[in-house]
């Protein structure tokens, strides 16, 4: 049995654009609503969490969890360059307070894939003063963050940098690292600078730990492809972990693995079990990810900010999560400093161009927005209440 540290977070995660609905001033909304878009399905009303966040928080609390990760939307807070909406800042502040009132530790993400449409039009991260514009937004976002112990600056900068390349090519590929183009290096470097700028802006907030969340892809070499796998890992992951070396924590997000042979990343063997997203069913991903992250960053405390599975079988969700948590326990027993586990996702939500992959502990009726807790949600809540990781 693994002794969990005092205050270990057992939570669930969401992201603004994926659950709120009508994030109309954002770049991804614009992309979704373009004729012939590379994102075939639209987010639309999403899960209507913009209005139903209280219900979402009640569910998290009633399940027996003690933490909720959610994102605030830059496009709502700054719909036009330099014009900040006090009402939207107050909206997000109410969610933070809603968490605190329910005894839930808020984990707040400042940027989760979406930017204001005007930011992208102005050149985005690599445009003139892209980093400065993000810094200006973060300065305003401080109004939301009083008493928030965990702040994630940028979600999956490595995916963002890879997507920058992918969008430039005008095609949508499944977000399996192995199937994606290399990151746009200029974007990668701008994101590192943006992360550091944001951390600096927040450094005097008492009791707030700031970090970023990196998609861990578990690159595994086979048939002597060690050097190639290392190169893949460096460009697509490790350079982003290196940028977290001085942070108060690093967010680990892991779902599957990428096997790299001498010819490059390999598709899973025929017959290998896959999830709705096409990824290999590989619950050991989390253990590999936390071990790698701790080693690469030189022991920066880890918060698992995402881990889960897109499946229509709730038993399979329980099986996957049990395996992932057992692996987490093994890593912790070996001394990896892990502060919490936030399951992806609380809700079946908008999966960037598709509604098909269901990652939720809770189902959502697409017409009425009614939430239904799945057996996996109840199972996970029981586990959290028990306070022990499965072995
Ligand atoms: C992202 C989430 C996404 C999840 C599953 C992560 O890459 O942060 O927004 O829904 O993986 O694909």
Your description of this structure?
Helix content is 41%, strand content 16%. The protein has a single domain, classed as Glycosidases (TIM Barrel). The mean pLDDT is 95. Helix 11 runs parallel beside helix 12 and helix 12 packs parallel to helix 13. The longest helix has 20 residues. By secondary structure, the protein is α/β, with parallel strands linked by helices. The strands form three sheets. Strands 1-2-3-4-5-7-10-11 form an eight-stranded parallel barrel, surrounded by seven helices. It has a three-stranded mixed beta sheet with strand order 6-8-9, covered by helices on one side. The chain has a two-stranded antiparallel ribbon with strand order 12-13. A hairpin with a 2-residue loop joins strand 8 and strand 9. Beta-D-glucopyranose binds next to loops. The site of beta-D-glucopyranose (BGC) has 11 residues, from loops.
What is this structure, in a nutshell?
41% of the residues lie in helices and 16% in strands. It has helices at residues 16-19, 27-32, 49-63, 74-77, 86-101, 117-121, 130-145, 157-169, 185-202, 226-242, 285-297, 314-333, 375-386, and strands spanning 9-13, 67-71, 105-111, 150-155, 209-216, 219-221, 250-254, 258-261, 264-266, 302-306, 338-344, 362-364, 371-373.
């Amino acid at each position: 049995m693994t002794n969990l540290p005092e205050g270990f977070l057992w939570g669930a995660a969401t992201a603004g654009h994926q659950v709120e609905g009508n994030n109309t001033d954002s770049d991804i909304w614009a992309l979704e609503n373009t004729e012939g878009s590379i994102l075939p399905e639209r987010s639309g009303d999403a899960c209507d969490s913009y209005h139903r966040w209280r219900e979402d928080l009640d569910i998290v609390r009633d399940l027996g969890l003690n933490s909720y990760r959610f994102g605030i939307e830059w496009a709502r807070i700054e719909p036009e360059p330099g014009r900040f909406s006090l009402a939207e800042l107050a909206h997000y502040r109410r969610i933070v307070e809603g968490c605190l009132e329910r005894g839930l530790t808020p984990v707040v993400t400042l940027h989760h894939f979406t930017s204001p449409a005007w930011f992208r039009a102005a050149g985005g991260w690599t445009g003139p003063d892209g980093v400065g514009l993000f810094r200006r937004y973060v300065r305003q976002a401080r109004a939301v963050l009083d008493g928030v112990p965990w702040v994630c600056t940028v979600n999956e900068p490595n995916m963002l940098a890879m997507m920058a390349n992918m969008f430039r090519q005008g095609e949508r590929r499944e977000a399996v690292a192995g199937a994606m183009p290399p990151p746009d290096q200029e974007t990668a470097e701008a994101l590192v600078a943006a992360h550091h700028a944001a951390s600096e802006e927040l450094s005097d907030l008492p009791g707030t730990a700031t970090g970023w969340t990196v998609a861990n892809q578990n690159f595994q070499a086979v048939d002597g492809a060690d050097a190639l796998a290392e190169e893949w890992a460096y460009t697509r992951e490790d350079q982003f972990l290196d940028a977290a070396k001085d942070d108060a924590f690093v967010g680990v997000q892991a779902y599957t693995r990428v096997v790299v042979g001498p010819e490059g990343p390999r598709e899973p063997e025929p017959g290998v079990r896959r999830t709705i997203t096409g990824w290999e069913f590989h619950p050991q991903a989390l253990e590999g990810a936390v071990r790698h992250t701790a080693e690469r960053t030189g022991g920066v405390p880890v918060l698992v900010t995402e881990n889960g599975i897109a499946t229509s079988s709730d038993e399979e969700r329980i099986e996957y999560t049990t395996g992932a948590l057992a692996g987490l326990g093994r890593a912790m027993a070996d001394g990896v400093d892990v502060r919490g586990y936030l399951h992806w996702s609380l809700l079946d939500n908008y999966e960037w161009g598709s509604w098909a992959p269901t990652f939720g502990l809770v189902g959502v009726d697409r017409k009425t927005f009614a939430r239904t807790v799945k057996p996996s949600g109840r199972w996970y809540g029981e586990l959290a209440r028990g306070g022990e990781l499965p072995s």
